[in-house]
Automatic annotation (TrEMBL):
<dbReference type="GO" id="GO:0005737">
    <property type="term" value="C:cytoplasm"/>
</dbReference>
<dbReference type="Pfam" id="PF08546">
    <property type="entry name" value="ApbA_C"/>
</dbReference>
<keyword id="KW-0560">Oxidoreductase</keyword>
<dbReference type="InterPro" id="IPR013328">
    <property type="entry name" value="6PGD_dom2"/>
</dbReference>
<protein>
    <recommendedName>
        <fullName>2-dehydropantoate 2-reductase</fullName>
        <ecNumber>1.1.1.169</ecNumber>
    </recommendedName>
</protein>
<comment type="function">
    <text>Catalyzes the NADPH-dependent reduction of ketopantoate into pantoic acid.</text>
</comment>
<dbReference type="InterPro" id="IPR013752">
    <property type="entry name" value="KPA_reductase"/>
</dbReference>
<dbReference type="GO" id="GO:0015940">
    <property type="term" value="P:pantothenate biosynthetic process"/>
</dbReference>
<dbReference type="InterPro" id="IPR003710">
    <property type="entry name" value="ApbA"/>
</dbReference>
<dbReference type="InterPro" id="IPR013332">
    <property type="entry name" value="KPR_N"/>
</dbReference>
<comment type="pathway">
    <text>Cofactor biosynthesis; (R)-pantothenate biosynthesis; (R)-pantoate from 3-methyl-2-oxobutanoate: step 2/2.</text>
</comment>
<keyword id="KW-0566">Pantothenate biosynthesis</keyword>
<dbReference type="InterPro" id="IPR036291">
    <property type="entry name" value="NAD(P)-bd_dom_sf"/>
</dbReference>
<dbReference type="InterPro" id="IPR008927">
    <property type="entry name" value="6-PGluconate_DH-like_C_sf"/>
</dbReference>
<dbReference type="Pfam" id="PF02558">
    <property type="entry name" value="ApbA"/>
</dbReference>
<comment type="similarity">
    <text>Belongs to the ketopantoate reductase family.</text>
</comment>
<keyword id="KW-0521">NADP</keyword>
Length: 322
């Protein structure tokens, strides 16, 4: 099996880096200064255990890779970039190529299923950071993260078993799951707070209340939409003892993936596929979701305008709520 990591940022870089460090066949797809740095100096993988530099092949687009049977396309771009990588991928990769969505949100799998029949979803519990070109950071040790996965819409086949065991072999916790989308929906509830964390900063007083507001809207929407979601008890049991966040020399953990988008000034953010998923379902099912809509709008504007993370207070957010 050859792992083609499409989007070798925080999550893709850590997963690809660990696979490569263990001698697995890995190709990275990256772009811009990050691609240049990987090509010239290798991928720097920082973790609580130390730093490693990995020399591994990197290409600038999925069309630059020579796809062959046995390749797995690991999508690790943010949700808003998924259509841009799937379109060329479908043109060059064999149709039977397994597509592993190593991403938050629940829309990537559906998008991939339009153009590939063998799609796998992942419940991604992996605190990782990518702020500087060529560098990715894993914050939890000894287990860097949990990557349970399964076939979409459901089931576990030989490919799911092989992917899960390949990830376990390099230190991740990974269980094959026949009901992976239930787990992705419960993860979505957690990611609704990404926008608030980016807007207000991870330590702002009052963000827990905003988080609760976003989740309450989402829980009601998912109930009305009849979507099966793993229960909080199942989620807590699976997470128990999974992560141990430890200091990584020279690289503090600032915030999650949306915080990193603002910190890096990428110009875009994933909120349309996190809060926006709830807003979409609310519109389809006649449930109001004003807090998720406001979070979605504000963080998109912050990304567009290059606003630094932490520029808004939770009370300012509440005042803006209709
Ligand atoms: N970071 C974390 O701790 C966690 C993240 N996740 C999820 O994992 C997924 C990935 O997030 P994360 O790793 O943080 O994101 P990153 O931005 O760190 O990594 C994504 C990478 O993909 C690159 N990319 C985007 N489009 C293309 C393209 N067309 N061609 C080549 N490269 C491309 C980006 O480049 P560029 O920088 O130029 O945009 C970036 O380097 C998201 O769904 C996120 O929600 C889940 C759990 C934890
Ligand atoms: C939950 C969290 C914040 C963990 O890093 C995450 O999933 C993200 O950064 O998107």
């Amino acid at each position: 099996m050859r792992w083609v990591i499409v989007g070798a940022g925080a999550v893709g870089g850590v997963v690809g880096g660990r696979l490569a460090a263990a001698g697995q066949d890995v190709v990275l797809v990256a772009r811009g200064a990050h691609l240049d740095a990987i090509r010239s100096d290798g991928l720097a993988l920082h973790s609580p255990e130390g730093r490693r530099t990995l020399r591994l092949p990197a290409v600038g687009a999925v069309t630059e890779h020579e796809w062959r049977p046995g390749d797995v396309a690991v999508l690790a771009v943010k949700g808003m970039d998924t259509p841009d990588v799937l379109r060329p991928l479908a043109a060059v990769a064999p149709p039977e190529t397994p597509v592993l969505c190593l991403q938050n949100g629940v829309a990537n799998e559906r998008a991939a299923l339009r153009v590939f029949p063998n799609v796998y979803g992942v419940w991604v519990i992996l605190p990782a950071t990518h702020l500087a070109p060529g560098v990715v950071v894993a914050h939890s040790s000894p287990t860097p993260g949990g990557l349970d996965l399964g076939r979409v819409p459901g089931g576990v086949d030989d490919t799911a078993l092989a992917l899960s065991s390949g990830l376990r072999a390099v230190g991740f916790a990974s269980e094959p799951r026949a009901d992976i989308m239930r787990w992705k929906y419960v993860k979505l509830l957690m990611n609704l707070g990404n926008a608030i964390q980016a807007l207000c900063g991870p330590d702002a007083e009052g963000i827990d209340e905003l988080d609760a507001l976003l989740r309450a809207e989402a829980t009601e929407v998912l109930r009305v939409a009849g979507i099966d979601v793993a229960t909080p008890e199942e989620d807590a049991a699976r997470r128990k003892g999974l992560l141990t966040i430890q200091p990584v020399e020279g690289t503090p953990r600032g915030g999650g993936s949306s915080w990193q988008s603002l910190a890096r000034g990428t110009g875009t953010v994933e909120a349309d596929y996190l809060n926006g998923e709830i807003v979409l379902l609310g519109r389809l099912h006649g449930v109001a979701t004003p807090a998720n809509e406001l979070a979605r709008q504000l963080v998109n504007r912050a990304a567009r305008e290059g606003t630094r993370p932490g520029a808004l207070t939770p009370s300012q957010f509440l005042k803006l709520l209709p």
